């Protein structure tokens, strides 16, 4: 074996062993994160995290993201969720999650910039205030999280959430402007009108936009038919 070949083979062995070590850490992160969702409501539970993980894989590959950064951030992105719920919204789960994630992330066999990027992904996935996602990984995670709120899964989640707050199936006699969150009128249709119908315009990546367009069109078709069936027209 030539000197160059043997250097290459040593490098690839070192890379393989780093990857094995990282996989071990990532496995533990997944178990730790999953535990934090015990008892969570179905609309914002660990299953959501796993759907975001799969969407992140898809978008991240298309956008050539650093998958180590993106997939660790996907597992951790909502770990602060229960603190937001318990505080009735006064704690931001993205900010809290970023604080909770640092002790977990700091010991990983990754570069400092990768670790900072993971924290940035978590902090900016909600895109509130001045925390805009500004790396390709943060944009991919943001899109993955938003895509899980729209399309067929988005409609299903909207009705699941409406059930959790005790809302009706539909409140045609109350205008959307007069209906209040967490009330009997916080229906799946209200969620679509107030929030879900606007999500596609916030998407950050090219692949995300393609998927969001399709999911958005499906929701429009679904709710058009829903209203027609509700009124006995079809
Ligand atoms: Fe979130
Ligand atoms: Fe999320």
Structural account:
- This protein is mainly α and 234 residues long.
- The chain has two domains: 1-131, Hypothetical protein af1432 (Orthogonal Bundle), CATH 1.10.3210.10; 149-234, Up-down Bundle (Methane Monooxygenase Hydroxylase, Chain G, domain 1), CATH 1.20.58.
- Helix content is 64%, strand content 0%.
- The protein has ten helices and no strands.
- The protein has helices spanning 3-35, 46-62, 67-76, 81-86, 93-105, 112-124, 136-147, 151-164, 188-194, 206-230.
- Helix 3 (67-76) crosses helix 6 (112-124).
- The chain is elongated and about 80 Å long.
- The N and C termini lie far apart (75 Å).
- It binds fe (ii) ion (2 copies).
Please give a handful of descriptors for the protein shown:
single chain, 234 residues, mainly alpha, Hypothetical protein af1432, Methane Monooxygenase Hydroxylase, Chain G, domain 1, 2 domains, binds fe (ii) ion
């Amino acid at each position: 074996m030539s000197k160059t070949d043997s250097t290459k083979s040593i490098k690839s062995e070192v890379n393989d062993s780093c990857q094995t070590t990282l996989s071990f850490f990532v496995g533990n992160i997944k178990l730790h994160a999953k535990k934090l969702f015990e008892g969570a409501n179905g609309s914002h539970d660990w299953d959501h995290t796993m759907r975001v993980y799969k969407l992140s894989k898809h978008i991240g590959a298309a956008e050539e993201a650093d998958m180590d950064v993106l997939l660790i951030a996907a597992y951790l992105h909502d770990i602060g969720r229960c603190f937001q719920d318990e505080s009735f919204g006064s704690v931001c789960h993205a900010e809290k999650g970023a604080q909770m994630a640092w002790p977990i992330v700091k010991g990983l066999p990754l570069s400092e910039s990768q670790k900072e990027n993971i924290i940035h992904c978590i902090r900016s996935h909600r895109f509130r205030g001045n925390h805009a996602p500004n790396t390709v990984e943060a944009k991919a995670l943001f899109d993955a999280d938003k895509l899980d709120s729209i399309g067929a899964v988005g409609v299903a989640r909207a009705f699941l959430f409406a059930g959790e707050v005790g809302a009706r199936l539909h409140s045609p006699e109350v205008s959307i402007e007069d209906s209040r969150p967490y009330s009997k009128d916080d229906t799946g249709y209200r969620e679509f009108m107030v929030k879900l119908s606007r999500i596609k315009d916030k998407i950050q990546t090219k692949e995300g936009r393609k998927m969001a367009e399709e999911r958005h069109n499906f929701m429009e078709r679904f709710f058009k038919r829903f209203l027609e069936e509700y009124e006995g027209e079809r």
